[in-house]
Design brief:
The protein has 17 helices and 15 strands. Helix 2 runs parallel beside helix 15, helix 3 packs parallel to helix 15 and helix 8 packs antiparallel against helix 15. Helix content is 45%, strand content 16%. The N and C termini lie far apart (69 Å). The chain is α/β, with parallel strands linked by helices. The mean pLDDT is 96. It has two domains: 223 residues, Rossmann fold, CATH 3.40.50; 155 residues, NAD(P)-binding Rossmann-like Domain (Rossmann fold, 3-Layer(aba) Sandwich). Helix 7 links the parallel strand 5 and strand 6. The strands form two sheets. The chain has an eight-stranded mixed beta sheet with strand order 9-8-7-10-11-14-13-12, with helices on both faces. Pfam families: AdoHcyase, AdoHcyase_NAD.
Length: 418
């Protein structure tokens, strides 16, 4: 089997961790049970560019149970868990091309490796797989039925491709499923971002000023958790509606240049470039801690910080100190990459359970319907979103009411008045 991982001897540890995650992924277990019987993906080649974690491993195992040939590479050089990669190769016969800390050249070699398997379906987390396919592997496009995308960042990229008329196959925006973005982005990113910051720094949040750039679902989640740990939360935004919502939720709102002067912790979750820039670093307090929880390492202008500094050193694991000419120190976490995955373990399994259930069902949907789908970005069909929610409630032992025929008629009629 063709693969490239750090060390197969790590597999035993990886198997145990995959099993531990599976215990909190009941939705995916229910889907896997059906997949094992029906084999809805039999003969389909799936190339996945996702964070190589225990939760992703359970998705790969589920897709393989459905009959698919699965090939996995990492969507971030610092998010790969080497023991999980080894376990997938050695114990589950799933080819993986990912090594924690790999350089940029190796990262793209791994992308090419899974694309060279001539996939029928792609799974992306950030959009690198589909972008590379369109730019450098166009000869393989005819093999592709469609793809899925896990993140806001990737969906933005593919909608831009659709607008420019260059997207060559349908993409389902898994990120936009209600059971994904509500739970994954708010509860998952909220908890795991704080987890990553605490593991990296061991600093107390209570009594600190915690600045969050962006008040989308991820920003809402981080704000909720930071406030819950006693921090004073400040939100910076460019969207007046989101800024208003943040204020009505009880948080201070101001421009980043003002927040930069008083913040102790900074987290970017916007999906945009240079959200924290040179002029912000110039006014930050001594000891300011800066982290990113958006997909790419572009939200913090690291080059500007390097140019401003007179010296740099790694003072702790995942903490780099930048000393400025006036003696102030600014601390960058996890190289400006996803702090929740680079410095911690990413989202809890129970959150990723719903995200990856959407991935599995969307792959099945693409295979069954690709002949009628156009090269555009689609939302996850409501019936799939509802099915994930139903399976989750079933796993939690929760029952809900059903509309009566009378109620259905009332809701569908315009004739009933006051």
């Amino acid at each position: 089997m063709d693969y490239h991982v750090k060390d197969l001897s790590l597999a035993e540890k990886g198997v145990l961790r995959i099993e531990w995650a599976e215990k909190e992924m009941p939705v995916l277990r229910q889907i896997r049970k059906r997949f094992e019987k029906e084999k809805p993906l039999k003969g389909v080649k799936i190339a996945a560019c996702l964070h190589v974690t225990t939760e992703t491993a359970n998705l790969m195992i589920t897709l393989k149970a459905g009959g698919a040939d699965v090939y996995l590479t990492a969507s971030n050089p610092l998010s790969t868990q080497d023991d999980v990669a080894a376990a997938l190769v050695k114990e589950f016969d799933i080819p993986v091309f990912a090594i924690h800390g790999e350089d940029r050249d190796t990262y793209y070699q791994h992308l090419y490796a899974v694309l060279d398997k001539e996939p029928n379906i792609t799974m992306d987390d950030g959009g690198d797989l589909i972008s590379t396919l369109h730019k450098e592997k166009q000869n393989l496009l005819d093999n592709v039925f469609g793809g899925t995308e896990e993140t806001t960042t990737g969906v933005i990229r593919f909608k831009a491709m659709e607008k420019d008329g260059v997207l060559k196959f349908p993409v389902i925006a898994v990120n936009d499923a209600y059971t994904k973005h509500l739970f994954d982005n708010r509860y998952g990113t909220g908890q795991s971002t704080i987890d990553g910051i605490l593991r990296a720094t061991n600093r107390l949040l209570a009594g600190s000023v915690f600045v969050i750039a962006g008040y989308g679902w991820c920003g809402r989640g981080v704000a909720m958790r930071a406030a819950g740990m006693g921090a004073e939360v400040i939100v910076t935004e460019v969207d007046p509606l989101k800024a208003l919502e943040a204020r009505m939720d009880g948080f201070r709102v101001m421009p980043m240049i003002e927040a930069a002067k008083i913040g102790d912790f900074f987290v970017t979750v916007t999906g945009n470039i240079n959200v924290i820039d040179k002029h912000h670093f110039e006014v930050m307090k001594d000891g300011a801690i800066v982290a990113n929880s958006g997909h790419f390492d572009v939200e913090i202008n690291i080059k500007a910080l390097e140019e401003l500094s007179v010296s740099q050193r790694d003072i702790r694991e995942n903490v780099r100190e930048y000393r400025l000419p006036d003696g102030r120190n600014i601390y960058l976490l996890a190289e400006g990459r996803l702090v929740n995955l680079a410095a911690a373990e990413g989202h809890p399994a129970s959150v990723m359970d719903m995200s990856f259930a959407n991935q599995a069902l969307s792959a099945e949907y693409i295979y069954k319907n690709h002949d009628s789908l156009k090269p555009k970005v689609y939302k996850v069909p409501d019936e799939l979103d509802f099915e994930v929610a139903r399976l989750k409630l079933n796993a939690m032992g929760i029952q809900i009411d059903q509309l009566t025929e009378e109620q259905k008629e009332y809701l569908s009629s315009w004739e009933h008045g006051t």
